[in-house]
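User: Hi! I'm a student and our assignment asks us to look at how structure tokens line up with a sequence. Could you show me two examples?

Assistant: Happy to help. In each example below, the sequence comes first and the structure tokens follow. Example one:
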Amino acid sequence: MFTGEKKQSLSDQAYERIEEWIVTLQLAPGTVFSETEISEKLKIGRTPVREALQRLASDGLVKTLPRRGMMVTEINIGEQMILLETRRVLERLIVSRAARRATSGQRKTLQEYAHAIQQAAEKEDLARFMRFDHKFDRLVEKASANPFAVKANAPFHAHCRRFWYFYHINGDLRRSADLHADIMRAIAAADEDAAVRAVDVFMDYLEEFTRSALNH
């Protein structure tokens, strides 16, 4: 376990696992499933699974089908650029506040994550890369101490990770890892201006990646 990580509730564990299955396409767009099936697969009770699925529905990753269960939503590539436009504004606020407010433990963990995500990219380990991308998002959100910005931005991360996973053949994993690491290290160094500049470069890359995916 990395520095600063804490034990999660069953609902949080279910949310993290199901979201990872959706993002990594183990639950592909259009997949229909039941709450019971997910509960049995996770070996977690139906109440925390139901709570997790409600959160995922709010995020726009699943939707309820009357009398059929739940379905993983389709990827809407036409909305991705608009999503990124909105995400950029929120990311700039979140990383600047994280650079200002992060604890010493959080800064140390960000340094660890920066190293880990670059190692994953060097080994072409997409699954590990995606896990540390997710861990990074969660840690920076907590460090920012701005729950309103975090709540608005959180669904965008999952949609972007799923989009990346679906179209990653068009991307550069090492470049993406380096750009993530630049943000982490700027926050760890308490450099707000550098963190915002690093986010802008990263968002430029995501827009470039999205245009590339839309053109194929």
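Example two works the same way, sequence first and then tokens:
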Amino acid sequence: MNHKLNCMLPTIAVACLSAANVAFTQSSNWDKYNNAGRIAYEEGHYDEAEKSWSLGLEEAEKLGPDDSRLATSLHNMATVYSTQSKLAEIEQVYKRAATIYEKAQGHSHRDLAYTLNKLALLYMGLGRKAEAEPLV
């Protein structure tokens, strides 16, 4: 191994470890916010759940556009929006979550099926049966 490469290896190793640490911290923060949102939601504290899940969504956005945690965060937001009757936001969030789930996990994964079912239920509730039928 040449001397220049030998001298660069510690720097490269530190850079890799730093990048891994940032990714772990982002993932760890996502877990923290996701769990806090779930607990708040289960206890009926919907504004608190929305706040925690919104912070989790911010963390998930940093993990990449095709990361399934981003889709999970979007699905969580749609769930709390449904509880709060924020209908304008729900459709876009479910559609984006479904697109990510399909890319990340494939077209036959249960998370995609569940999200499409929720979107179909939304369409049915809004009287948009023709849009709901292909999703179920």
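Here is something you could point out in your write-up. Helices lie at 3-42, 46-62, 68-83, 87-105, 110-125, 129-132.
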